[in-house]
Amino acid sequence: MNSNSKPILEVNGVSKSFGGVEALREGSLNLFPGEVLAIVGANGAGKSTLIKIIAGVLTPDRGHISIRGTKITRQDHSVGFIRQMGVEVVYQDLAIVPNMTAPYNLFLGRIPKKFGIFVDVKQMQAKTREVLAELKVETVQSLKRPISEMSGGQQQSIAIGRAIAWGKEIVILDEPTAALGPNETQQVERVINEIRKRNTATILISHNLDQVFRLADRLVVVHQGHTSKEFLRNEVTIDELVKAITTG
Amino acid sequence: MNGNGPQKHILGTKDKPKSMMNQLSLPSWDSPEGRVWISRIRDNVPFIAITLVILLFWFISGDRFMSVRNWTFIAQQTPVLLLLAFAQLLVVTTGSIDISVGSNLGFSAYMAALGMLWFGELGFLVGIFSAVFIGVLNGTIFSLFKISSFVTTLAMLIIVRAVLVIVSDGRSIYVSDQPMSNSNITSIEAKWLLDLGQFPQILYFTVIVAVLLWVVYEKTVFGQQLKALGGNEKVLRLTGISVNWFKIQVFAAAGFMVGLASFINLARSGAATVQAGEMLELDAIAAVALGGTVLTGGYGSVLKTVVGALTLTIVANGLTIAGVPPSWSRIARGLLLITAIAISLNRKQIDVVK
Fold this sequence. Notes:
CATH superfamily of chain A: P-loop containing nucleotide triphosphate hydrolases
CATH class of chain A: Alpha Beta
Oligomer: heterodimer
CATH topology of chain A: Rossmann fold
Number of helices of chain A: 8
Largest sheet of chain A: 6 strands, mixed
Largest sheet of chain B: 3 strands, mixed
């Protein structure tokens, strides 16, 4: 769909070994603004190694990634630097502080201050309403109560909101609905569709192939440590995809 | 506009299948509404407890308990414990614990007295600095060496008390309101300090500290981060907050509170002794727990800690007036502590009890 525009993220032949075992071999992919790219593969295929390299958690042995055309050198390849370049990761858990409010969670790590020490609650609440409206999350009860009183879908929506609220253009969603029920999953999927409209580039990792088919524009199959196949969603059936996942 | 979304979607109730319980007018305990109600009751346990305790002792001892004189006494008894409980509150909110506060109090009170002996009136600041220093030491060992706060501060409890014995050589320093002629007694002359230890000054001082702490705890970035650290340390690390440095700050702030407590203890008791503050760490933890602060961290309240410290003082006072022997009184307070924690704990948030 965006084949004419430039990729915002390029992964060029990255490899990673752990004590002689090659977890990822020459992994490559391109990610374009405004698309949802799903990475699918069996357990142990190398998906999470690939994601950790993109997020900066792991440094590749060979190959590199480029963001907006800028090659990330091995020295710069860290979580902090890649976050600065506009990449945000949303994990299936760990993403929120349950006892704090939704605004606090949205502003985590960048709480606005008044007089240098006080929390600017009004600014936080206003911005939270703005972000929630943009994501069409309308079932929020109170911005003053702990986020744990919200549904799992709302909580995960806030975690995704945190990624986009600060202008992050590349969002990695690592099994974002694995811990959620059907209705909550639906809510998070709506949010994912909303961030696509904002021209955010999204990488989705999911075990749920139905979900992948509902959300993704393109799919990259990881098989035995290699990015073996790539499909446009409209040009592949679920059976073909399953075959690619299992046999490469 | 968005905050006023359709009310029926509150808490995702539409996600739940309609069960028999939902058709009754009372919400079931496991429904979202039921959970909100349980948490409301749990939120107010400290206030319910103190009311019951006051009514109980009023009923048992009548006017001997419910007299201006006795309540003045309670108002004098509470501040030292309350300031120590405040120190504990800061640490407990982050999910850690500081059991060295009693030893730290004894040591810092002695250092304050020593400071006044050396440098005159402002020398009491030496005591505050000592308390903060011990806090920083606690925080540094705990966060950098990854030794649990319980073990770190338990070691510090023993070490600091021993250092106090060495420094003081077992001798007390007394505070007097006139020059002392007896050369066998080490004393400092500071009428203002003794006055501060009296009602109502001691109460004013404590109220001011409590209000300031409330502002810090509820309104500042520091206070919010205390709770966030108790809620999910891993997320805080992921968002680039320097958690180790923050933990050192927390223990330093707690040390500062202990410094204030030691200062007030010196003022009230009129002496810096080797035993000062012994076993007071348990009372401080009990006061925080009676105030409904979950010992696993993430939640807490300055006001409820005040209520907790008051409750503990009132129980001790009421049992004494009722003629209960001290040992039985301690047993009663221990049971009260267990009961308070049992009610205030939110067991869903605790995976493993160790």
